[in-house]
Amino acid sequence: MNITLLTLTFVAVNLDFFIMLLFLLKKYPLSQVLLGYLLGNLILMILSFMAGKLLENFLPEWLLGILGIIPIYLAFKDDDDDNETVTKKSPLLAVLITYLSVCAGCNLSIFLPVLLGESLTTFLQTLIYTSALTVLIVFLLKLIERNHLIQSLINRFGEQLMKICYILIGLYVLFDSGFLTHIYQLLFH
C-alpha cells in the first residue's frame, strides 16, 4: 500500500466534492453527512476494486466518463417535492446519493487503475486508510463551515454555487475520462 499515492488520489478525486461538503454540512447534521460520505467512499472503492478484478481487460476507461452527465443533469433539474421529501426524511441518503452521482465516474476511473493488481489484504488496508481520511476531511470542513464569512457566502450563494460545481464536475469527468474525445473521434474520423 503506497500511502502517498493513496492520499494524493483521495484528495484529487474528492477535491471538488469538498466544496459540496461545505454546503451539505450547512444543511444536514454532521453525523449524517459523515456517514453518507463514508458509505459513498466505501461503495465506490469496493466497486473500483471489483471492477478492476473482473473487467480490467474488457471496459475502456473512457467509457466511465459518461457518468459525467449525471451531475450536469442534477444542476439543471428542478427540485421537486418528492426529492425534497426524501432528503428531509433521510439526510444520510441525500448525502450518499449526492456523492455517488457527483463522484462515481471520477472515483471509478481514477481508483480503478490505482487498485489494479492489489491483493484483498492490501485493499482492506486501503479501505481503512481512506475511511480515516474521509472522517478527517469531514471534521476539518465542519470547522471551516463554522466560519461566519463562509456561512454568509453559503447562505447567499450556496444553491447557485452548488449547481455551478455540479456542471464543472460533470464537464471535468467528461473531458478527463476521454469520453468526449473518443465520441468526437468516432463521429468525425
UniProtKB/TrEMBL annotation:
Record keywords: Membrane, Transmembrane, Transmembrane helix
Bilayer-crossing regions: 6-25, 34-52, 58-76, 92-116, 122-144, 164-187
The organism's place on the tree of life at top rank: Bacteria
The protein, known as: Integral membrane protein
Coiled-coil region list: none
InterPro entries tied to this protein: Cd-R_transporter
Annotated Pfam families: Cad
